[in-house]
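Hey,
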Amino acid sequence: MSVILVHTERFAEHQTPPGHPERSERAEVMDVVVDSWRAKGTEVVAPRAATREQLLGVHDADYVRSIAGTTGRAAALDPDTYTSSESYEIALLAAGAAVDGVERVMAGSHRTAIAVVRPPGHHAERARAMGFCLFNNVSVAAAHARHLGARKVAVVDYDVHHGNGTQHIFEADPHVLYVSTHQYPYYPGTGAAEEIGRDAGRGFTVNLPIEAGAVDEDYQLAFERVVLPVVRQFEPDLILVSAGFDAHANDPLGGMRLTTAAFGAMTAALRGVAEECCRGRLVAVTEGGYDLKALAASLDAAVGALAGPPSAVPWPSSGIASTRGHASTDAATRVLRAF
């Protein structure tokens, strides 16, 4: 396994306000986790910057030029998203880390990889930055995998927020399956169960909107009833994971109640499907996560599920009764039954 790390304290700068106490702490937390896995013998490499051609696989040329134009200055791109003088450089490395992971698993030198990056990416649209995201890292990776010969790519997103950018980039493409579990209604307002793709891509977008307050058992049900069977049926050549950790119970931006162990269980379950469908080829790309202790522990659990031989990770039990998972999976299966 290879962990791909943007190894710099600068990579969190564009998404935290100047003077914010967590301006570099988030980067340091991620560095500590990666360093601990390096000490265990896990390979850690620095990424190359994504190329313009790789970005243009999912982003408009004018948009790429506009982000490049922020080099050396601070710029407000939307109410949540702005740049520092180095954000363009670091965003290229974040997208490039995801590309690097894909190249390694597609070439067969590694079965799994995780790109540990900031800025995140799944909110970035073809021509719009939003939600702390500049370039859509996982989408750049998916398009590059297709360029390398993958017939079909599955993207599974367990961030607490819906990945509107990833959905919209591939919503008409039957070769890229997008599956998302997310708090709903919530930012960015997309991700209703009825959003199933368009044109040739109808049925290849699978949304599992879940009411705030969901617990481990709700996500377990969503995975076992919908996520895993759909990915198996799709039979991808590669699985990509938008690994956001902000559905953790302690995260200040989300309203879910997942435990740390749930992130290991979700990641391990997806790895199991990768072993069945695509010779174990799986690349995870980090997204959100805003409580520092929860981020460190959840990232560690995800890396642990990808390091070493594949094995099932038991789902934790919260002991909290909830029907949110049933409501979400019922809604998804109702609209997707025709597919």
